[in-house]
Amino acid sequence: MPPTNSSGTTSRRGFFRAGALGAGAMLAGGQTAAAVAAQSAVGTLSAVGTLAAVAAPAVAKNRPPNFLFVICDQLGLDALGAHGCPDVSTPQLDRLIARGTTFLESHSTNPVCSPARSSLMTGRMPVETGVITNGRPIHASRPTIGHVLGESGYETVYCGKWHLPGGVPRPQDGFTVLPARGGQGSLDDVAVSRTCEAYLKNRGRDRPYLMVASFMQPHDICFWGNHVGRRVPEGLPFAGIRDQLPELPPNHTSRPPAPAKLDRIKFDRFSPQQWRYYLYLYARMVEMLDADVGRLLDAVQDSGEAENTVILFTSDHGDGRGRHLHVSKWYPYEESVKVPLVVCCPGRVAENHRDAVHLVSGLDVMSTLCDYAAVTPPEGVRGSSLRPLLERKDVAWREYVSSEHHVDGRMLRTEQYKYVHYKHDPVEQLFDIKADPWEMKNLYQDPGHSGVLEDHRKLLAEFQAGLQPIEPTPSAVRPKSPRPKRPAPRKRRRAAGERT
Ligand SMILES: [Ca+2]
User: Residue 232: its pLDDT value, please?
Assistant: First the structure.
C-alpha cells in the first residue's frame, strides 16, 4: 500500500517508492499490469466477445518499449481522412491509423486544455487533479506519467505545449524539457517536430524513453474568428477557393434544449459562407499537424526501433466546427468531446483495426503505458489499460465514460445514450447517439425515455460518488506585473484655425 499524506491521498514521493516495489513484485509474481489496471476501471464491467489475439513479437520481448506520446490541440475525432472527413488530406495520420488501432468512441475527460491534459498526464478525472479549469497546476500529490516512468528507469522528455499551467513543464512535473517553442501552431509546431526528430536521432540507447511531442495545431483556428468579425465573404482572402469550401454540417443551426450555461454559448457572427471558410481553414491546420506527425513517424522508423516503440496519438479536445452554432470547445457535444486515440506498435498492436465498441477516454493513457512498461500504476488511477483491446483479447470493459464541463456540468456516455446534467439546472439532456449522432433531439422530457433518463442519472451519481476530488492549487501563473504608468498624452491644441 503506497504511503499516504495527511489527506489520505498518495504523495508523489510515496508513490515513487511504492511504484518501484510494485513493479518488482509484479514481475516476480507474474501478475500483469493489465489485471491491476482492470481492477480500477470505471463503471460496471461487462463481458465482450471473443477476439483474435495479436501474437507478441519475438523481438524485444524482454526489453521495455519506448513510448512516443503525441498530443495535439483541438482535433476532433472525425476531422481526419481515415475517419471519414472528405475535406482534409491526412496521409500521415492515416498511415498511423492503418498501422495501428484507432478508437472511435474516444472521449476527452473535460474538453478544454488544462483539465484534459491533467487527465492525460495522471489517469485521473480533472476534479481529482485539481485542474478544474485552465490555469491550474496538477496537484502535487498526483504523480504524472513522467514521474512514474522516470522512477522506473525511463528517460522522460517533453517538447511543445504544456499548459498545466505555463509554456513548459517544471522540473517537478516529471520531465526534462526539450526546448522548442509551443506557441502558435503554424509557426512553432515545426520546431517541436524537428526537435523531437533530433532527439530520436541522437539520444543515448542505454535507457528506454518516454517522449511527449505536444503540438498546437489545429488550435490556431481559435484566432481566426477574432480576425474575421463581420467581414463579408467577398472581403475574405482567397476568393478562388470558393468552390472548394466544405459543406455545413447537418446540425449547423440545431439548438436542442440545454442547461443555461451551455445554452448561452453561441457563435452567430459568421455568415454561412464565412462558416465554410472556417471549416476550410480548420482542415488546412489539421494538414499542417499531419505533416509534423509524419516527421515523427519517419524518425521512429529510421531509429530502427519501430517494433519496440509504442506510439500513442490523441488530442485534448475537439472543435465546434459550426455544429450547434459552436466554435472552439468546452461542450459535451460530440464535436467537442470526441477525440482521436490511436495506438501503434508493429507486432504488438492490432493493425488497421477500428474499435467502434469500447468506450475509452484520456484516463486510459497512464494505465496503458504502465502496462506496456510492466509498471504498477499509481494508487487511485481511474483509467484502464487499453492493451487487451489493442491485442484483441477478451476483456471485461466499462459500461460508461464521463466528462466534466464548465466546472459544474457533467456528461455520462453509455453505449447508446449521452446524458448531460449541470448542477442546479432543471434542463437536462439525453441523446440517443446511435439514432441521432448529430445530437439534434433532446429526449429528456420524452415519456418513452423516462426509465433511460433515470438509469443514467443513477450511473452518473454512482461515478461521482467514487471520485476523490481534491482542492485546486491556486494558479501558478504569475500575476501580471502592473504596467508602468505612461505619461499622459499632451493635450492637443486645437485653437481655432490651427492645423494638426
Ligand atoms: Ca486545447
Answer: 54
